[in-house]
Design goal:
Blueprint lengths: L3 H10 L6 H10 L8 H11 L5 H13 L4 E3 L7 E3 L6 E5 L5 E4 L11 H4 L10 E4 L6
Parallel strand pairs: 3-5
Antiparallel strand pairs: 1-2, 3-4
Helix pairs in contact: 3-4
Bound molecules: zinc ion (ZN) (2 copies).
The site of one zinc ion has 8 residues, from loops.
């Protein structure tokens, strides 16, 4: 996820417009390191656009994901979370308070497929999710 100008161009190249809701979601996610869920994004948009529906928010998040502007994280079994940082990185999640933090570490020297599978797959990326309890919850 980069600038509003870039987002406008990306949307345009897909025949889409920068609607107030799309801009709002962009602003909420911009530089957001809390990995909000669709529900959390919805609550914040609703404060400014009380008539907005959850479906609109969810569809907008899906559009931004499909355009490669945001990443959808499936590391919490209860709900999807969204990450504006589309660069490769990993996550650590607290089982109690559900807080998700980024882990910026290159694990690639340590992680590889078993040789038997390595010949069948050409791996381009991987994501690691660490699960446990944060200091506050411990
Ligand atoms: Zn916690
Ligand atoms: Zn992240």
């Amino acid at each position: 996820m980069e600038t509003v100008e870039k987002l406008t161009r990306t949307l345009k190249s897909h025949g889409l417009k920068l609607t107030p809701q799309r801009l709002m979601i962009f602003k909420i996610l911009e530089d957001n390191i809390s990995h909000p869920s669709a529900e959390e994004v919805f609550k914040r948009v609703k404060k400014i656009y009380p008539t907005v529906s959850f479906t609109t928010i969810y569809k907008t998040l899906e559009t931004l994901r499909d355009l490669g502007e945001i990443k959808e994280l499936i590391i919490d079994e209860d709900r999807k979370h969204y990450d504006p940082n589309t660069k490769p990185h990993h996550h650590i999640i607290c089982k109690v308070c559900k807080k998700i933090n980024d882990v910026f570490e290159d694990f690639s020297p340590h992680i590889k497929l078993p040789d038997s599978m390595g010949s069948e797959f050409d791996v381009s990326c991987f994501q690691i999710s660490f699960h446990g309890k944060c200091r506050n919850c411990n």
